[in-house]
């Protein structure tokens, strides 16, 4: 399912004039994801392997596989997709529904993943799960669906959760991915102000994307944060420089 211009199901509502970050929570639902023509190439590593939450099973059941296949076949026809949700998806057990969601995320089926995510939130067994939200943030950010990421970030708060380091990092990475550097910087500062501790991924994203002289002072602050929050900061910076040698040197000043 392509994402040149993706219209997500109207479940988290999308206000195109929405501005983030704000210190308030709104009732939101995703209705569409804007496309981006930015040519900025951004590195949001250190993602050497997929993060697999403990609640995800290793193998999909027959029911989960059939549900995923049925959703993909019916995706182009709203009425047919609604029937699949009524006859198959809504009848899945908790494990099978979460496995189906994880598989749709793995296949980058964004619209279907959003719909299944919201189906899970309707189930009697559902309790707000930050890991589920973070996986959705990552998928949406990877597809440059920045407004949808913002909405999902607000929705997790509406669900009674507080963002952790990963949630802020996914939001920050989404901003950098479409070239909205100032919002990425602001989100990094919010991460620290919230009491969360920047991890290697957050620090690497900042260092890799603030390469111009305009942000030299911020880069120095991030380097100091490496000293503050990491064991072996020099080794970390050398690792980032080794992986991406064409960018600016990252020695601590």
Plain-language structure description:
The protein has eleven helices and two strands; from the N terminus they run ββααααααααααα. The protein has 253 residues and is mostly helical. The protein has a two-stranded antiparallel sheet. 36% of the residues are buried. Mean pLDDT is 81; it is low at 1-46 and 48-57.
Write a short abstract of this structure.
This protein is mainly α and 253 residues long. The protein is 54% helix and 2% strand. It has a domain of 66 residues.
**H-E string:** EEHHHHHHHHHHH
Mean pLDDT: 81
End-to-end C-alpha gap: 46 Å
Q: From the helix content, strand content and strand pairing, which structural class follows?
A: mainly alpha
Counting DSSP H or I runs of 4 or more residues, the number of helices is 11
The proportion of residues in beta strands is under 5%
Largest sheet, strands/sense/barrel: 2 strands, antiparallel
Unreliable residue runs: 1-46, 48-57
Classify the helix fraction into a percent range: 40-55%
Could you give the count of β-strands?
2
Q: Give the radius of gyration.
A: 19 Å
Give the strand order, joined by hyphens, for the main sheet: 1-2
From the spread of the alpha carbons, the general shape counts as elongated
Comma- or semicolon-separated keywords:
253 residues, two-stranded antiparallel ribbon, elongated, mainly alpha, disordered N terminus
List the helices and strands and how they pair.
Layout lengths: L11 E2 L15 E2 L31 H13 L3 H10 L6 H13 L3 H13 L7 H13 L3 H13 L6 H13 L3 H13 L6 H10 L6 H14 L3 H11 L10
